[in-house]
Design brief:
The strands form 2 sheets. The protein has a 7-stranded antiparallel sheet with strand order 4-3-2-1-7-6-5. Strands 10-9-11-12-8-13-14 form a 7-stranded mixed sheet, with helices on both faces. The protein contains 9 helices and 14 strands. The protein has 2 domains: 127 residues, Beta-Lactamase (2-Layer Sandwich), CATH 3.30.450; 166 residues, Rossmann fold, CATH 3.40.50. 24% of the residues lie in helices and 28% in strands. 35% of the residues are buried. The protein is an alpha/beta fold.
């Protein structure tokens, strides 16, 4: 990631303060702005306070607190001076900006009469999560996710939060879509409910998800899966962060239609997943053929194990 990408996230008059942070572009994971508190940057897993002159420190400074005007200026810049144009995303609590970066929002929620969220106003907290696409991270997995005839196994990635499952899924989608020595390229349809896989901006994928991939952005998984099966005739269907129940029934329908499946779910182990009430049907229905358990060691995502539906090493 280039330093200019980070600087462009801020209005021109504020960029001087972010030059030092931008020099660490490859390691920046997130930037947080909170009204009444100093700005912070998470760099290579370490939180640093951003001083009034942009210096990175371990101690907060009263000189460096963010004002409501600061947050409003950044938000207006990211929305290209039109909050209305991004109203649907704001209502969900995040924006996806150019480059596939995601901005979390918090403030005062305005509810409809039925209790659903109509809008978020007085936005006073921003969490800019920096997208780091890692091409090739799934390469070593590929030979274990295809059979000898080039058929892709239905595959579920399992990991706790922050262990890189979305990054791994994104690269798997790219490899499956483009094709490899283990299998021919396939038409992949992606339901990108939170814009984290393809990182679409104005409908265009900002991340490399392959030449044969179609993306349905910002759509709930259950509805999205059914829409894509009917409209795009995918050979492979990919979704992130299964929630159980309805998601699994939609996946079962997709599998019955002949689609191969790629998906992720939160969990620390295969055994933990087996004991979750809302996930047991994964195993009883034999929905997946390969389970890839991910872990984080030395700040890197690593494959802890690959298993079949019986829990045996695959």
């Amino acid at each position: 990631m280039r330093r200019e990408d980070i600087l462009r996230m801020f209005p021109e008059g504020m960029r001087g303060r972010w030059k030092i942070t931008a020099e660490h572009a490859d390691g920046v994971q997130e930037i947080r702005l909170r009204v009444g508190s100093p700005a912070t940057a998470l760099i290579d897993g370490r939180e640093r306070f951003v001083g009034a002159d942009g210096e990175l420190t371990d101690m907060p400074s009263k000189r460096a607190v963010c004002t409501s005007e600061d947050v409003e200026a950044v938000l207006g810049h990211l929305c290209r001076s039109s909050l209305y144009a991004f109203a649907d995303e704001i209502r969900q609590g995040f924006l996806t900006i150019q480059g596939g970066h995601r901005v979390g929002l918090a403030g005062q929620v305005v509810l409809e009469d039925d209790g659903t969220v109509r809008n978020i106003k007085y936005i006073r907290y921003l969490n800019i999560r920096i997208a780091h696409e890692i091409r090739g991270v799934s390469d070593t997995l590929l030979p274990r996710l295809y059979d000898g005839a080039g058929r892709l196994y239905n595959t579920l990635l399992i990991s706790p939060p922050g262990c890189g499952k979305t990054t791994m899924l994104r690269d798997l989608i790219r490899n499956v879509s483009d094709g490899s020595a283990y299998g021919a390229g396939m038409n992949v349809s992606v339901v990108d409910e939170r814009s984290e896989i393809a990182g679409s901006y104005l409908g265009v994928a900002q991340n490399d998800v392959g030449i044969r991939t179609d993306v349905l952005d910002g759509c709930p998984k259950r509805e999205g899966m059914m829409m894509l099966i009917r409209s795009m005739a995918p050979q492979v269907l990919a979704v992130d962060e299964l929630g159980g129940g309805e998601d699994l029934r939609a996946l079962q329908a997709a599998s019955s239609s002949g689609c191969r499946l790629l998906a992720t779910v939160h969990g620390s182990s295969l055994e933990e997943l087996r004991h979750k009430d809302n996930m047991r049907s994964i195993f009883t229905d034999g929905l997946f053929e390969r389970y890839v358990v991910l872990t984080r060691k030395n700040r890197r995502c690593e494959v802890e194990g690959i298993y079949d539906n019986n829990g045996c090493n695959a």
